[in-house]
Amino acid sequence: MKANLLFILIILFMSCASTNGEIEIKILEYDKSINTLVPNVTLHKDKDVEIFRSGSSFDKNHVAHSCIIYRIDKGVLRGYQIFTITLNTYNRAKYLWVNDSTVTFRLNNKFHISEKYTMMGYGGTTYLSCDK
């Protein structure tokens, strides 16, 4: 009886803990102005994602964040980068690769989850949209 109860509890826990495939990462602190940040493809592989927060404040009321996705484009690993300005300071992010050139992500802290961002990178183009 105890074994059956334990088995049922494990199944319930696994079904409640299942995610939609999102990966959670720590937001990295960048101690310089965020607009000086450049993707470093030598340290990454296909489908890596990094999100940075500016260590030096953008201004007193806003925080600058940068998301970099790394993907193979025409046989070459490339880094695609966007910048966004938020009102909150975030320390974690969850992302999901939608297809080979598109990532969705949300920034979060213990008090707030940001809107959903969609980032696309292909060829020489990088695109960002936001769902409120």
Task: Name its key features.
5-stranded antiparallel sheet, globular, mainly beta, 4-stranded mixed sheet, 132 residues
Provide a compact summary of the structure.
This protein has 132 residues and is mainly beta. The protein is built from one helix and nine strands; from the N terminus they run αβββββββββ. The strands form two sheets. A five-stranded antiparallel β-sheet has the order 1-6-7-8-9, with no helix packed on it.
Overview of the structural elements:
Strand 6 (92-99) and strand 7 form a beta hairpin. The protein is globular. Mean pLDDT is 86; it is low at 12-18. It has one helix and nine strands; from the N terminus they run H-E-E-E-E-E-E-E-E-E. The chain has one helix spanning 2-17, and strands spanning 23-26, 28-30, 49-54, 63-73, 76-86, 92-99, 102-108, 116-122, 125-131. A five-stranded antiparallel beta sheet has the order 1-6-7-8-9, with no helix packed on it. A four-stranded mixed beta sheet has the order 2-3-4-5, with no helix packed on it. It has one domain. With 132 residues, the chain is mainly beta.
Helix percentage: 10-25%
Return the average pLDDT rounded to an integer.
86
Q: What class do helices, strands and sheet pairing give?
A: mainly beta
| Portion in beta strands | over 45%
Show unreliable segments.
12-18
Number of strands: 9
Number of domains: 1
The largest sheet is: 5 strands, antiparallel
Shape verdict: globular
Give the count of helical stretches: 1
* Beginning-to-end CA distance, first to last residue: 48 Å
Strand line-up in the sheet with most strands: 1-6-7-8-9
User: Helix-strand pattern, N to C?
Assistant: HEEEEEEEEE
Radius of gyration: 18 Å
